[in-house]
Amino acid sequence: MKSGNRSNALLVELLIVIMFFMLAAAVLVRVFFAAHRQTEKADMENRALNDAQCIADRLYCADDAFAALEAYGFVQAGDAWTLERDDYMLSVKADLEEMTQGSMLRRQVTVVSKDDEVLLDLPVYRYEEGHP
Questions:
Q1: Edge-to-edge strands of the sheet including 118-129?
Q2: CA-to-CA dists, residue 42 to 3, 28, 112, angstroms
């Protein structure tokens, strides 16, 4: 009789240990999945930031900004230029302010995720002297 009680207690202990490891495995799978999603999001944000900085540099240096945008793959949609990527969309809006001695060109580079979250809003200014 004592041997039967010991084997039952051993089985109960084994079941408790197995349940504990199953619970730990389930928690770890969720943690690793969340970490993977966070890594993918950080990678997408990094690519979007690099893309926006590259475009901002090109817009600042280019004499013909619209030709530079077309060369980069942008398409004009209304008053903005847009470029679709896999995980995000880039858009550029241009504004011109005339001054007495020249003009201030203002371009706004915006990065929006597929979830419609604005990831980055980067202004680009360039002053061009005009003829007095």
A1: 75-77, 80-84, 88-98, 102-113, 118-129
A2: 58, 21, 14
Q: State the amino acid at position 31 in one-letter form.
A: V
What is the span of the domain harbouring residue 117? 2-129
State how far the Cα of 106 lies from the Cα of 126, in Å rounded to an integer: 7
> What tens digit of pLDDT does each residue of 72-92 get?
999 998 889 999 999 999 999
How many structural domains compose the chain? 1
Collapsed DSSP state (helix, strand, coil) of residue 58: helix
pTM of the complete model: 0.73
Q: Among residues 112, 114, 125, 6, which one has the least CA distance to residue 59?
A: 125
Question: Identity (one letter) of the amino acid at 61?
Answer: C
What is the phi/psi pair of residue 100, to 5°? Answer: -65, -35
Task: Please enumerate in sequence order all residues whose Cβ is within 8 A of that of 73, keeping only pairs 6 or more positions apart, or say none.
Answer: 83
Rounded to an integer, what distance in angstroms lies between the CA atom of residue 126 and that of residue 3? 89
**Distance, CA of 54 to CA of 62 (rounded, Å):** 12
